[in-house]
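Request: Have a read of the protein record below and say how the chain folds.
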Amino acid sequence: MRLLHTSDWHLGRSFHGIGMLDAQRAFIDQLVTFVREESVDVVLIAGDVYDRALPGVDVVGLLDDALVRLTGAGAQVVLTSGNHDSAIRLGFASRLLERGGVHLRTRLNELDQPVLFPLGDDTVDDAGPVLAIYGIPWLEPRLVAEQLGVETASHFEVTRAATERIRADVRHRSGTRTVHSVVLAHTFASGGISSDSERDLSIGGVGAVPLDLFDGFGYTALGHLHGRQELSPAVRYSGSPLAYSFSEAKHRKGSWLVEVDAEGIGGVREVHWDAPRALAVLRGKLDDLLESEDFAWAEATYCQITLTDAARPAQAMDRLRARFPDTLVLGFDPDGPGAAPRASYSSRLAEAEDDLSVCCGFLDHVRGRPASDAEAAVLAEALDAVRLEGVSL
């Protein structure tokens, strides 16, 4: 059998105000083509199928289309919910969908109810070797601790309880046949490298669970972190299929193709997805960015640009977009003498000598550069006009 490990589709997400449904459709096109050409038997989606608990109608339609096309290409689908999903909504009609080859694992009581696939010529009901795929949905410790019988509502304790239930079921089934286990889990495992686009799983960053909680399983397909990575030969993150933050600019997006036979988990190889638009993270002085050929490659990308000029250049975004039309994020981090720490705005305001100083100081504060002589003259004229109207400043 061939399993394709994916996660974190985040259907419906936007990228700095840019809708991504077209890019997500393009990913699904690639996915369906790969499933058909590589004869993938099962597509795994380890959580965060949607980007929010209440996805739009067009977003739900996109998932519906994806599931129809994947099953039509010959694969079954096993998916579980992540911290962005509504487990109840995502799990709707799960028993009915299972008849069509879409297996949802979004409920706590389904932790130890695997999807079974025969490995060989036998059926699931025979005594031959079987692949058991378990799904651990996103576990909110405060909500599930009591149901899982743990006293401490922590990510470690609820995940430990969940994996113990799965191990118990594997042991029970192994009494009469050979069982090879695969576990889907949406969590932050120790050793994983995070990026900016994942929502924190706990306050204070203490939500990571130790890797050894997944010891003994044939393969653990993790979701939540957006960079594809191997924590151990049997524990991996597939990462998101698209970049959802500029911190992912250097990611090579893809999945893992897992081979399984009667002897267990065999080879695991990388799968790559083509990105519809590249990302560029640029830093430098405005004139250098506008003139140097070293940055020509970024003209057709989505850009995050940090300017290092000592003083904030006027009309910086407009000038940058003349060369880099899709500049989405602009920051300012001056180098040199202008970068020296300045007094706080409140202290400078307290030292202002008159109303004009207050207004000019505000411009300096929000723009990072002082008012020009022309701007100061306009402000002075406006203040005089207000005084003539008899308004107290």
In short: Residues 202-206 have pLDDT under 50 and may be disordered. DSSP finds eleven helices and 17 strands in the chain.
